[in-house]
Design brief:
seven-stranded mixed beta sheet, alpha/beta, binds zinc ion, Alpha-D-Glucose-1,6-Bisphosphate, Chain A, domain 3, 543 residues, binds 1-O-phosphono-alpha-D-glucopyranose
Length: 543
């Protein structure tokens, strides 16, 4: 019995860098979630009617309620089958893998990624297409346009649906399949990596801590590390997904994963540390007393790809988001393959992966991935590092330092100013944009500006053009400052300043990035008037 409910549009349902992300209270407004889901179904009509969808989320507050509503709407909209993770749980990369494996039309992921959860936290929805990747811009635009006009949605009457038992059942004409969200993903990882080698590494006494940050990767990590790879119980910490992530910020960086960082910095700490975010697509890699910058991580994985069974034949190309350091470019050059520079956001890698132009891709924001799915993949990156550590039998720090000695070091930092007044932040960017044409040829901190622009991208596969993706100031000697406003924050504006400089002198390999980059950090402030315009004298997060 399908109900048609009349509704009216909300004005704020434009999907951002990673879907629609808002405070929970916004999603709890009557019809809000329903409108967005119906806009997705209406925009896809022919593609999803009679098709299979994958559904799950990172377990945050409102996940369970949203799953119930979406199942009732999917049945009312003529979807033929929905594959849902038991308990409504599914990591983002595992949804991507499941869409591909089952030939599904797409998937719906419920997550606000690394944003805090709980009744006062954030919630989010993302639609992924048949290749397993985030909806490309023309589709998100269509969904947004539809959301501005919507006046009705279709839904089954309220009825509790059991999503906690693995089984297959009918919801009117739709089949619902509740599956274990871990099994298929773990099997995929076993096909990609040398589990025997990694098992030997653990058996030899190698010690690791994986921090799931009370988010989705806990169940995956326990099966993969502690069961399949024989790591001792307790290797995975904060391994039970909680609706509010234990009150924390499920973002694996030096600020929010402080507990893990402390363990790795203690005298009898483990050899290797890693963490993932709310929905399991990000990764942070740590050695003893050593942080691996995500830009370096991408370059190192690329340089060592042939250590891993899945990439034994070599890689066809690499892509990195524009603000990611140019460390990967050096490796691509050495390998004789192309390195593509895309706007921020995973969706830009999809076309390159589908066209087999690239094998690996990554972002400075703790995102790394490959052609095995169409999302970044936190546990995949951790397993890649483990495979590397097992084969090279060196410490994390030594692997990174060897890499710098060979390719040079792209010293890198990102400074985030969070919760800024939106108008002040836009004014800062506008003023700097105006100033860009005057910058080439001027000298700052002893370096001459060679070029300055507002980054635009033309997709080499479909020709689509994306503009205003960050203000770049390039210096001679391969130093660079990039400014962009975040597209994922939900409170005020977040200004991200990305600063990098190339060093090849051996004595510069040991020095801390913040020290090496100090003059350029100062320059970044002066050129954009950060202190003056925002009233802040230091960033909230330094990576
Ligand atoms: C941030 C990251 C970006 C990433 C996105 C989704 O977006 O900077 O690299 O793709 O989260 O995880 P931003 O807030 O900068 O728009
Ligand atoms: Zn995420």
């Amino acid at each position: 019995m399908i109900q048609t409910i009349s509704t009216r549009p909300f004005s704020d349902q434009r999907p951002g860098t990673s879907g629609l992300r808002k405070p929970v209270s916004v999603f709890q407004q009557p019809h809000y979630l329903e409108n967005f889901i119906q806009s997705v179904f209406d925009s896809l009509a022919d593609e999803v009617k009679g098709a299979t969808l994958v559904l799950g989320g990172d377990g945050r507050y409102y996940n369970r309620e949203a799953i119930q509503i979406i199942l009732r709407m999917a049945a009312a909209n003529g979807i033929s089958r929905v594959v849902v993770g038991q308990g409504g749980l599914f990591s983002t990369p595992a949804v991507s893998a499941a869409i591909r494996e089952r030939g599904a039309a797409g998937g719906i992921i419920l997550s606000a990624s690394h944003n805090p959860g709980g009744p006062d936290g954030d919630f989010g929805i993302k639609y992924n297409i048949h290749n397993g990747g985030p909806a490309p811009e023309p589709l998100t635009e269509r969904i947004y346009e539809r959301s501005k006009k919507i006046d009705r949605y279709f839904i089954l009457p309220p009825t509790p649906i059991d999503i906690d038992t693995q089984r297959t059942f009918q919801l009117e004409t739709m089949t619902v399949e509740v599956i274990d969200p871990v099994t298929g993903y773990a099997a995929l990882m076993q096909r990609l990596f040398d589990f025997d080698r990694i098992r030997e590494l653990f058996a030899s006494g190698f010690r690791m801590r994986f921090d799931a940050m009370h988010a989705i990767t806990g169940p995956y990590a326990k099966v993969i590390f502690e069961k399949l790879l024989g790591a001792p119980a307790g290797t995975v910490i904060n391994g039970t997904p909680l609706p509010d992530f234990g009150g924390g910020h499920p973002d694996p960086n030096l600020t929010y994963a402080a507990e893990l960082v402390k363990m790795l910095n203690s005298p009898d700490g483990p050899d290797f540390g890693a963490a993932s975010d709310g929905d399991g697509d990000r990764n942070m890699i740590l050695g003893r007393n050593f942080f691996v910058n995500p830009s370096d991580s991408l370059a190192i994985l690329a340089a060592n790809a042939t250590c891993v069974p899945a990439y034994r034949e070599g890689i066809v190309g690499i892509a990195r988001s524009m603000p990611t350091s140019r460390a990967a470019d050096r490796v691509a050059q050495a390998l004789g393959v192309q390195c593509y520079e895309t706007p921020t956001g995973w969706k830009f890698f999809g076309n390159l992966l589908d066209a087999e132009r690239i094998t690996l891709c990554g972002e400075e924001s703790f995102g790394t991935g490959s052609n095995h799915v169409r999302e970044k993949d936190g546990l995949w990156a951790v397993l890649f590092w483990l495979n590397l550590l097992a084969v090279r039998a060196q410490s994390v720090e030594n692997i990174v330092r060897d890499h710098w000695h060979r390719y040079g070091r792209d010293v890198y930092t990102r400074h985030d100013y969070e919760g800024l007044d939106s108008e002040a932040a836009s004014a800062l960017m506008d003023a700097l944009r105006q100033k860009l044409p005057e910058l080439p040829g001027t000298k700052h901190a002893g370096m001459v500006v060679s070029a300055a622009d507002d980054f635009a991208y033309v997709d080499p596969i479909d020709g689509g053009r994306t503009e205003h993706q960050g203000l770049r100031i390039l210096f001679a000697d391969e130093a660079r400052i990039v400014y962009r406003l975040s597209g994922t924050g939900t409170k005020g504006a977040t200004l991200r300043v990305y600063i990098e400089q190339r060093e090849t002198a051996p004595e510069k390999m040991e020095t801390d990035a913040q020290i090496l980059l100090r003059p350029l950090i100062e320059t970044a402030d002066i050129l954009a008037g950060i202190r003056e315009r925002t009233g802040r004298d230091h960033p909230d997060v330094i990576t």
